[in-house]
Each structure stands twice: as structure tokens, then as C-alpha cells.
Amino acid sequence: MIINKIEKDVKVPDVHSRHKYPWDQMEINDSVLITAEKGEPLNKLKRKVGPAARYYGDVSGKKFKTLLMREENGVRVWRLG
Predict the structure, then answer these.
(1) Does any domain span residue 58?
(2) Cα(14)–Cα(21) distance, rounded to whole angstroms?
(3) Alpha-carbon distance 18 to 76, whole Å?
């Protein structure tokens, strides 16, 4: 293990994602439905969307809730805080 010197005023990079989700545009109590592509299992979609929202929330200080919505064939994400 190599521990480098402590650096001051290093800017935290913007959050990047392979998928373009609208997390940065959402206000409190907004929600967005991410629908599954044809043949894509809903559980697989939730395993992609949920962690992406949680990660963005962790680095931005925002709070999100993700639920599988079978009747809408997708995953709905709410911004809570």
C-alpha cells in the first residue's frame, strides 16, 4: 500500500454515469418512471437504477426512494430530500 501526501483544495469531480438519469433535475417529491426495454427483466433494471440513484444521492446529499412498479413495467424513483 502506498499512502500519498495529503492534498488541499482538490475539487470533487462531477458525478458521471453510463446511463443518463435525471437525478440532478429532480426536485423534492418529483418522481420518474424508468421503463424496461422489451425483454429486459424488471429485477435487472432495478439492480441498475437503484444503485445509480443511491450513489448520486450519497455524493450530492439528496435522498431517493426506488420501487419496482410491475403494473407500469418499470422502476419508479422518487426524490425525497
Answers:
(1) yes
(2) 14
(3) 19
Separation CA 81–CA 61 (nearest Å): 8
Distance of CA 53 to the CA centre of its chain: 2
Count of structural domains, the chain: 1
Whether 35 and 67 have beta carbons less than 8 Å apart is answered as no
- The answer to whether 46 and 68 are in contact (CB under 8 A) is yes
Does residue 13 lie in a domain region? no
Q: Which amino acid appears at position 78 of this protein? A: W
Q: How far apart are CA 79 and CA 66, in angstroms?
A: 9
Domain that holds residue 74: 32-79
pLDDT per residue as tens digits for the range 25-60: 999 999 999 999 999 999 999 999 999 999 999 999
